[in-house]
Amino acid sequence: METSLDGKVVIVTGASSGIGRATALAISRQGARVVLAARDRDALDLTSKSVKGDYLVVAMDSTQPDDAQKLVDASLHKFGTIDVLVANAGIYVAGDIASGDPDAWDRLVATNVSGPFRLIRAVLPHMLERGTGDIVVTSSVSGHQAIQWEPVYSASKHAVQAFVHGLRRQVGSQGVRVGAIAPGIVLNELWQRTFEDPVDVMIERGDGLASDDVADAIIFMLTRPRHVTVRDLVILPRSQDI
Questions:
Q1: Predicted TM-score of the model (pTM)
Q2: What superfamily in CATH does domain 9-235 come from?
Q3: Catalytic annotation on 153?
Q4: Per residue in 31-55, pLDDT tens?
Q5: At a CB cut-off of 8 Å and minimum separation 6, what does 30 contact?
Q6: How far apart are the first and last CA of the chain?
Q7: Which of 83, 89, 224, 238 could disulfide-pair with 13, CB 3.0 to 4.6 Å?
Q8: Could you say which of 44, 153, 217, 219 is catalytic?
């Protein structure tokens, strides 16, 4: 039997755009109470207008060490509990190492690696005390195979994969499920590309995923019966073969 999300409190980071926005809205349609978190307060407020049901908006920066605990504290103050964390905030840096910008790499690691690590550390004691909870971290197909045009991004997602697998072994027996969603190319703001063809045409022919496709996969993970853990879910557009 599926697990219902109705009434659950779900934190979604990176909720101002892309996968995070699509996930927050999809989860709210399942009856959950949603905490929308990202750096851009105006974009979060815009997203909140489409939320179905109760919500909280928290402007935070995952690269700031104290912001993770502030997010958890604000969520508990508003709702009294946290059932699900979707650690989704991330940035993308591609390019050759020889001409790359180490400062940009540092920002990427702070966002993609340290950010979810700190946020999970902040939320985990509450889940362990209750003996239940779900954590889904947005990884990438690049976390399963190093891709030559994005080696630093790939390294960040490999770190996420290792962390998720180790964490799951620590807390799985205590009622907390941990999994990673690993999409291929998603045609949203993260890629910052200008496409020659309309995005809907590219999605239809299998050149990329929509953010809603990834959101649907995350909901699938969260709604499995409690005895089922989806450890890794890799989701690719039809034309992508990496």
A1: 0.93
A2: NAD(P)-binding Rossmann-like Domain (3.40.50.720)
A3: yes
A4: 999 999 999 999 999 999 999 999 9
A5: 4, 5, 6, 219, 223
A6: 34
A7: 89
A8: 153
